[in-house]
Specification:
heterodimer; A: about 300 residues; alpha/beta; Rossmann fold; Alpha-Beta Plaits; six-stranded mixed sheet; four-stranded antiparallel sheet; 11 helices; 14 strands; about 30% strand; elongated; B: about 260 residues; mainly alpha; 13 helices; about 80% helix; globular
């Protein structure tokens, strides 16, 4: 459905993305995840034929972005990042224009599509209000409505919940979830819980390159092949570290800044297959140090993301 | 044609904000006043010379009313047209709606010509009203309708040239004010460039005369439709339209 082949984009001499390739199947909901300025919006702008890539190409719904841009644009509904709208129009007038611009010209068909999409997005009650007078949540829903109006098989949403309050975020997320099904959805975000909630698969990009692409579960279990044990111990840090390193199965020991004198926090990374907590606590107590706390740190998508996107 | 959707949107957006009304109102105020003054002046002169047969018969309403009115409309359009063209692309860029427009299944050229023609339509209606005043005079005077039609046609060509310059500038900046001022400046230069014909060497003279928008306008109110003038205005329109379309597809513009 969406196929990106080796996309590279330079803005002048600055590289925005390099060699980005991915494939999204029909009906999938995929999250494009990355810190700000990672190149998410650039990828999306290329897919919507707004910007041409410096090299590489993409196929959407079987059409090439260079050869058939109009057919590509016909098969996608796009919500830009800043959600620009013609705010001096009423909601009805705006949607009417979008309908016409997307090639729906028959009057009955327009009326039908507009009322359907307004119901779907919950904006029927503001049909005759001027857009600039509406709240941000409403505007976001209007933005989604304009993307949906011609019932495109592909939806591309650039940061759909940015700048909304928590209640509106939940509403928007539910709306997106309800839209899935037949549609293919590509959604960019830097908010991780959102992606793990909505998406089945994640493409993580950083500094213009794809660094991981997999389902949310697989991604976390892959990184969770390691287990992090968090320990607070009273005793000389160097000696403690030596003791910990002697235990078989321990791969790495990190010392965090001391809490009090002689009390330090440690993060021990071990293999996931074996729970070493019992052995560690026994060793520490036997070596004469004070064991104050020991627990397993659960890795969230947030940790994975940070791990992948920050250099050590 | 999807072009119509953008055209309707542009026309509508002129009248959802006060800008469309204000520009038309000011244009009409100035030109209606001028029309009134010209009529009064003509009536006085006719009265004055009524005892002298020779000058009386040379007092043609065409020379005294039609020609100055159309001249004046041309000067006022130079001032008001930048106000109509300034927002066409600047505002879309500033608000980011350009991203919507260019990701809908529309051709760049459709978008451009829709904007161009929407502005020209407003201009057409705006200049039509003072031209209709002349028809009122028919009750008392004999006017050559073909001259009026010709002048009106010339005015539209001139307006089209100003609009094509205005849209080009509008596509280059995100600020409407800058767009209006630069458009005004460039149109003015194109207008007055013929004036330096007295100081430049004779061999360059024809060039400056030729590229002056004003010199090509002079023939129309005289009732002359010269293909050179027609081709000149059309070339100006298409040249600037071509530049704008190149800018719209360029990578830099969208990045």
């Amino acid at each position: 459905m969406i196929e990106a082949k080796n996309l590279t984009k330079y803005y002048g001499k600055t590289k925005a993305i390099e060699g980005v390739s991915f494939y999204i199947d029909k009906g999938e909901i995929v999250g494009l995840l990355g810190p700000n300025a990672a190149g998410k919006t650039t990828i999306i702008k290329i897919l919507t034929c707004f910007l041409p890539p410096t090299s590489g190409t993409a196929k959407i719904n079987g059409y090439d972005i260079f050869e058939n841009p109009l057919l590509v644009q016909k098969s996608i509904g796009y919500l830009p990042e800043k959600n620009p709208l013609y705010e001096e129009f009423t909601v009805g007038e705006f949607l009417n224009f979008v309908c016409e611009a997307k090639g729906i010209r028959k009057k009955e068909e327009k009326v039908k599509k507009i009322s359907k999409v307004m119901e779907e997005c919950g904006i029927s009650d503001v049909e005759n209000k001027l857009i600039y007078k509406l709240s941000k949540g409403y505007k976001q829903r209007i933005g989604i409505a304009q993307a949906l109006i011609n019932d495109p098989p592909i939806l591309i949403l650039d940061e759909p919940t940015i700048g909304l309050d928590p209640k509106q975020i939940i509403e928007t997320r539910n709306l997106i979830k309800n839209l899935s099904g037949k549609r293919t959805i590509l959604l960019s975000s830097h908010i991780l819980p959102e992606v793990s909630m909505i998406c089945e698969r994640v493409i993580i990009i950083n500094e213009g390159k794809i660094i991981a692409t997999d389902t949310v579960e697989k991604l976390s279990s892959r990184l969770k092949g390691k287990m992090e044990i968090y320990i607070e111990i009273e005793g000389n840090p160097e000696k403690v570290k030596n003791v910990l390193n002697e235990i078989s199965g321990v791969e790495n020991v990190n010392i965090l800044p001391p809490v009090k004198e002689e009390i330090n926090k440690y993060i021990v990374i071990t293999d996931r297959k074996k729970d070493l907590r019992k052995e560690i606590s026994a060793r520490i107590v036997n070596s004469g140090f004070g064991l104050l706390e020991i627990k397993v740190e659960e890795m969230t998508l947030e940790d994975i993301f940070l791990k992948l996107t920050t250099k050590e | 044609m999807n072009f119509l959707s953008v055209y309707r949107k542009e026309i509508k957006s002129y009248f959802v904000s006060p800008i469309g009304y204000i520009v038309i109102l000011i244009f009409l105020l100035i030109n209606s006043y001028i029309f009134y003054v010209l009529c009064i002046y003509y009536a006085f002169s006719s009265l004055k010379y009524s005892d002298y047969p020779y000058p009386y018969f040379t007092l043609s309403p065409n020379e005294w009313i039609v020609k100055p009115l159309f001249h004046n409309m041309a000067v006022t359009s130079l001032i008001v047209l930048p106000l109509l063209t300034m927002k066409l692309f600047s505002e879309e860029r500033r608000l980011g709606t350009i991203e919507l427009l260019f990701t809908y299944p529309l051709k760049d050229s459709d978008i451009y010509w829709a904007k161009f023609l929407s502005c020209l339509s407003i201009f057409l209606i705006m200049t039509l009203i003072p031209s209709l005043y002349l028809l009122i005079l028919e009750k008392w005077l004999i006017l050559d309708k073909r001259v009026i039609l010709n002048s009106y046609f010339g005015l539209l060509l001139l307006g089209g040239s100003f609009i094509s310059i205005g849209i080009l500038i509008s596509s280059l900046t995100e600020s409407q004010i800058i767009s209006a001022i630069v458009t005004f400046g460039i149109s003015l230069i194109f207008w007055i460039i013929g004036w330096i014909s007295e100081i430049v060497p004779a061999k360059y003279l024809s060039f400056f005369d030729f590229i002056s928008l004003f010199n090509h306008y002079e023939n129309f109110p005289k009732g002359i439709l010269d293909t050179r003038d027609l081709i000149f205005y059309l070339s100006i329109c298409f040249f600037f339209s071509f530049l704008t379309l190149r800018i719209l597809v360029s990578k830099k513009y969208r990045g």
